[in-house]
């Protein structure tokens, strides 16, 4: 079982009182599953993503990742948990002055000792360089390996982020609106790439694109106002489900 | 290949500087020196709080305050004259001269004012104080005058820059309506620049207080003179008390000027200018009126203007001035300057390098974003390390370089090595804080993303914060070297080697024509490197959003 969420609540301290981002979410995602999470803006998708990659603690409820209680971990244990979860963001925040190769290498950080991470910044081991170069070649960026991240286009940066996930080689890959900011041609190309590397891994994607979700993901979760509105196999999702999910709030 | 060559050249230069700055690590562990340091450290506690000495400390503190208030007032007046004259857009070039050519006399005068301001600020205030001590005798007056001229040079440049930077719409409007140059200044330039002028003047006052305390080391009265005296008498408990008084004075003045700045800013927001604040707010607030009056009285009473009434002052001044000119430009003397000049450069390089290394070592535990990581294990220990390193950094930078020289002489004896250590320790305090803050202030998203894939705090610091901050760190270090070069010309005045020592000897032995030459050499050295630093700053947009505190630190005591 990759993820088990039981009645999870997340409350942020807002400027005008606390804000309820997730309001009692219960969700189980098994190993190797491919799940799309749909929902309007503000439904809590990004919060859910932060919970799943263990960078946010639930305010209440239990969160188990790989069978371990993620709320109880600290330090080294927490880092080794995160090492098993790769995340590809809508706008990946690569480290701008580092090269594409170095950014891809970041995927190895969690498995390095302190000394090795110091050395790798100056002179990475040949085996690590080969690994990162292969990953960059897989995403079609072999010739940009030594370009600084801030010299790459948005689409290229996203491909570097995917290469970093490849180098990390985690059993789980999370994707947060991975294609929302790209032009249609690129979207198709990158979607193929992402699905390709997610073969054999658990994949959870937060998506805007309903068609992509229904076509490519066996299971679809509808999230609205911090609650799970439906959790169905893709073929059972009806237009009614979707219009309810995206309906405007009633006034008053 | 190119990198290797650069690295080789840099190490060769460092080695040369190591040798030139007379660095002898063995001196640090010499038994006699260790005993002196031990006696000093042991003697620092308890501080001397006896009533008789507290009275001395109180008087010295008030005198230092008086010197800096009087120095600031005089430098503001002189700086305004230099600034208005130096404003290129009024006298030399720009849209006011689209239809008419600039008048040759005024244009020349304006250039002269710029050059004069450059000269006044490029000669360190401590050198001015040394000369004025000879001219006017020991006491607070040389300190007041030294601050007045050197900060007039700084403010002259700052004011001119501010006046040139005002939006030109109102200026052109008045000009085309037939207003004279001075009318344009009074009605269009001044009202637009007054807010920044006030802010910078207050800031320069803060710097003056720090400088005033140090000027005493060369005989100009105040806290520095007392520290010097207590060091010579081996009364280290008194030194502690005096340093505490100095820190309290600096903190008090900073708080005072912050409060004032806040008030000016509030008024600016509410649409009433600084002028109106000056005119209207004062009669209403009795408290601040009393405070201002007290400050002014302290200034007039303590700044040593009484010495101006000495009967034989004018003939003495005349004799001194005549002995300064012409400067000794004989080849043999000029050749003898080369060695101390090189030593000065070497001291500044090694001092900066030492400060960089020590500062970086202290900056690591002082960077809150990874030390105070809520997910880390061993959090209490990390919190303790953080607090300790921040305290050490604050201590290192709150003691001025020149006072560090006195302390380092105890540890390694007179000479350039003491100068290197002193510059290094103070610089470590300044750079360590800047390094830590730059690392904390990098764009957080890449750091956060690495957290999400399991990187530890130190790895995030190394792989995400450091790459993003390194250019800022490099330019801070370079700017600090520029500052240290200036400081290393004066460490010799109190025993730290370099050209300052040559100057001190020339003045003590009465070779004033040689002293004049040395002052010119110092001026040339500093104005050349300042020019280079300006050029670098312009080519590479250094820390663009450098926080105010960073600027304050960089310019501190200089």
Structural notes for this entry:
The complex is a heterodimer of chains A (252) and B (558). Helix content of chain A is 35%, strand content 26%. With 252 residues, chain A is α/β, with parallel strands linked by helices. Chain A folds into two domains: 1-84 and 176-252, P-loop containing nucleotide triphosphate hydrolases (Rossmann fold, 3-Layer(aba) Sandwich); 98-169, no CATH class. In chain A, the strands form two sheets. Chain A has a six-stranded mixed beta sheet, with helices on both faces. Chain A has a four-stranded antiparallel beta sheet with strand order 2-1-4-5, with helices on one face. The mean pLDDT of chain A is 88. Chain B is mainly alpha-helical. Chain B folds into two domains: 51-319, Orthogonal Bundle (MetI-like fold), CATH 1.10.3720.10; 325-555, MetI-like (MetI-like fold, Orthogonal Bundle), CATH 1.10.3720. Chain B has 25 helices and no strands. Chain B has helices spanning 2-20, 25-28, 31-44, 51-86, 88-91, 104-122, 125-136, 140-164, 169-176, 181-215, 223-232, 236-269, 274-284, 286-302, 313-324, 331-363, 368-371, 379-398, 401-412, 416-440, 444-452, 457-488, 499-508, 512-539, 548-555. In chain B, helix 16 (331-363) crosses helix 23. The model of chain B is unreliable at 268-283 and 541-554 (pLDDT under 50). Chain A binds chain B through residues 53-55, 74-76, 78-83, 85-87, 89, 92-98, 102, 106-107, 109-110, 112, 114, 117-118, 121, 164, 168, and chain B through 375-378, 443, 445-446, 448-456, 458-459, 462-464, 467-468, 470-471.
